[in-house]
Design brief:
- The radius of gyration is 25 Å and the shape is globular.
- It is about 15% helix and about 35% strand.
- It is α+β, with helices and mostly antiparallel strands.
- It has one helix and 13 strands, in the order αβββββββββββββ.
- Mean pLDDT is about 80; it is low at about 1-45 and about 45-55.
Length: about 200
C-alpha cells in the first residue's frame, strides 16, 4: 500500500514538474521579440564586403535635421511635395512614393567605414552630410579624406572613422515614405538626382 502511495506521489510530482516546465518554456517564447514588430529597418545603400548588402538596423524615424544645416532657399521639391524615389539605398525604396520633409544646401558624401563593434566593412554608404562629420568645416572634403562620423543613421555608425568615397553639392532631402507596410519618417538622405516628380 505504501509502495503504491509513494509511486502515485512520485508520478504526480513528475506530472506537475512537466506541466510547469511547459509553462516556463511557453513564457519564454512569449517574451521573444518579433523582428517584424521592431522599429528598425534592415539595409541602407551601400555594400558590405561579402554579401553585397548592408545588413544593419535603420530607425523608422530619422529624427530632426542636424544642427547648423542650411535649409535650401529655392529647392526643386519644396517641403510637402510628393515625389517618386529612384534611389535604391534600402529594400523597397526604389519607385516608392515619398513626401519631402526637408530640403537643404550642403555637401553630401558617400562613405566607407567599418561599424563600431566589428562587422563587415560598409562601402559606398549613401549619404552623410557635412554637418554629420566631426570638425568638417565649411569646405568640401576631398575624396579619400579620413573623417569621424557623427551620423546615427545606422547602428554602429556614430563615432567611427570613415573615408570619403565621393561627394555632391546637389540639394539634399529628408523624405517620408512607406515600404513593406512600414512608414519611414525623416529618412536621411536622398539627393536631387535620386528623386523625380510623382507620376
Amino acid at each position: 500500500m505504501q509502495r503504491r502511495l509513494r509511486t502515485g506521489l512520485a508520478a504526480g510530482a513528475l506530472g506537475v514538474a512537466l506541466v510547469l516546465a511547459g509553462c516556463a518554456s511557453g513564457a519564454d517564447d512569449d517574451q521573444q521579440t518579433d523582428p517584424s514588430g521592431t522599429e528598425e529597418h534592415q539595409g541602407h545603400g551601400g555594400n558590405n564586403a561579402e554579401s553585397g548588402d548592408e545588413e544593419m538596423e535603420h530607425p523608422m524615424d530619422g529624427g530632426p535635421a542636424p544642427e547648423g544645416i542650411a535649409e535650401a532657399s529655392e529647392p526643386t521639391y519644396p517641403v510637402g511635395t510628393e515625389v517618386q524615389l529612384t534611389a535604391d539605398h534600402m529594400e523597397g525604396m526604389e519607385g516608392a512614393t515619398a513626401t519631402i520633409s526637408g530640403a537643404f544646401d550642403t555637401y553630401t558624401y558617400s562613405v566607407n567605414y567599418t561599424p563600431a563593434g566589428g562587422g563587415d566593412p560598409v562601402t559606398d554608404h549613401k549619404w552623410v552630410v557635412q554637418e554629420e562629420i566631426e570638425d568638417a568645416g565649411d569646405e568640401r572634403l576631398a575624396d579619400g579624406t579620413e573623417v569621424t562620423l557623427l551620423a546615427e543613421h545606422m547602428e554602429g555608425m556614430e563615432g567611427v572613422k570613415a573615408t570619403i568615397a565621393s561627394s555632391t553639392d546637389e540639394t539634399v532631402y529628408m523624405v517620408d515614405y512607406e515600404t513593406d507596410g512600414m512608414k519611414m519618417t525623416n529618412h536621411k538622405w536622398v539627393v536631387e538626382s535620386e528623386i523625380q516628380p510623382a507620376s
